[in-house]
Design brief:
AhpD family alkylhydroperoxidase; CMD-like; mainly alpha; peroxiredoxin activity; globular; peroxidase; about 0% strand
Length: about 160
């Protein structure tokens, strides 16, 4: 499969993508735990069907020491016993924040309150930004059919 567009070949797209990636780096270096960031990024990408981001975040999480069991169970986290209560709260917020078209009202108060119980204001802000960022990245990659499979852990952080 070949990508429909090369974002870096177009000057306007290149500038915009550069700013998006800078925003992604700011979120990456936030107070939100790195493990939570990878789990949320992976789950949002699974929901949206973004193969490139699933490839990237599975490999990044594994390189950071995440276990295969937890990575394999992210798609069914509600029934899994391997996630902390804080991670479960983040995954719920991520799902509701990603499925807004299906939610008829967006993120419910229960999901918000549970996330706020486990994350301070700075972390919660980073979590909301991450969910939004991943949805944007997923859509850019899906629309342009960016191929998956060749990503190497660390590649996006240079």
């Amino acid at each position: 499969m070949e990508a429909r567009l090369n974002f870096l070949a177009d000057p306007t797209a290149g500038k915009a993508v550069k700013h998006l990636m800078a925003a992604g780096q700011a979120i990456r270096h936030s107070a939100l735990p790195a493990t939570t960031q990878e789990l949320v990024s992976l789950r949002v990408s699974q929901i949206n069907g973004c193969a490139m981001c699933i490839d990237m975040h599975t490999k990044e999480a594994a390189a950071a020491g995440e276990t295969p069991v937890r990575l394999n169970l992210v798609a069914a986290w509600r029934e899994a016993t391997v996630f902390t209560e804080a991670e479960r709260a983040a995954l719920e917020l991520a799902e509701q924040g990603t499925r807004v078209a299906d939610a008829h009202g967006g993120v419910d108060d229960g999901a918000w309150e549970l996330a706020a119980k486990h994350y301070d204001q700075e972390q919660l802000t980073a979590l909301v930004l991450l969910i939004s960022f991943m949805n944007t990245a997923n859509r850019l990659n899906i629309i342009t059919r960016q191929p998956a499979g060749a990503y190497v852990a660390g590649q996006a952080h240079h």
